[in-house]
Design goal:
It is found in: Cytoplasm. It is a single chain. Helices cover 19% and strands 9% of the residues. The chain contains four helices and seven strands.
Length: 192
């Protein structure tokens, strides 16, 4: 199967679903059987999944160590991952490994333990990210939560399962002007 065929067919493939498996570390996925859905998973000749969706929700993950390595073991084309569901785990930060999946358009991180709103900045590297969930994390309690996320990630169209409206974007821009100081250019001073 060439790459073009893969891109055209795998979007419809069911997800590689490891939800509700009590997974503690990513490496456990290698020995765990994914959940079966209504349609069987298609696999490559090497036995790897041809899906673009990886569901790891409702587990007990607290970090994503070895995520790239394990994704490469499970998926024929891990670089084409478009949907990752890590909701309802014990993650305390947004691991930079997620920013290596440039085709990622849906990322669910709700119901974790992510403390700091600044973690969202890492996701600005994902050019195709359109749908993001972060509700149910301690960061949600920070003042300006929604506006900060919308300013940082202007391309998302759905945030916390709500569509992003023009009014949301306007409010976020006003909030940004009032709350985020622009970086000042440094001026070199000539000293004699």
């Amino acid at each position: 199967m060439n790459k073009r065929d893969y891109m055209n067919t795998s979007v419809q493939e069911p997800p590689l679903d490891y939800s509700f498996r009590s997974i503690h570390v990513i490496q456990d996925l290698v020995n765990e059987e994914p959940r079966t859905g209504l349609r069987p998973l298609k696999r490559s000749k090497s036995g790897k999944s041809l899906t673009q969706s990886l569901w790891l929700n409702n587990n007990v993950l607290n970090d994503l160590r070895d995520f790239n390595q394990v994704a490469s073991q499970l998926l024929e084309h891990p670089e084409n991952l478009a949907w990752i569901d890590l909701s309802f785990n014990d993650l305390t930060s947004i691991d930079p490994v997620l920013t290596t999946f440039f085709n990622l358009s849906v990322l669910y991180l709700h119901g974790n333990s992510i403390q700091h709103l600044g973690e969202v900045n890492k996701l600005a590297l994902l050019p195709r990210l359109r749908s993001l969930t972060l509700h149910g994390n301690p960061m949600e309690e920070e003042k300006g939560y929604r506006q900060y996320v919308l300013c940082t990630l202007p391309h998302i169209t759905t945030f916390d399962f709500s569509g992003v409206t023009k009014a949301d974007r306007t409010t976020a821009e006003v909030w940004k002007r009032m709350n985020i100081k622009p970086k000042k250019a440094r001026i070199k001073q000539n000293t004699l």
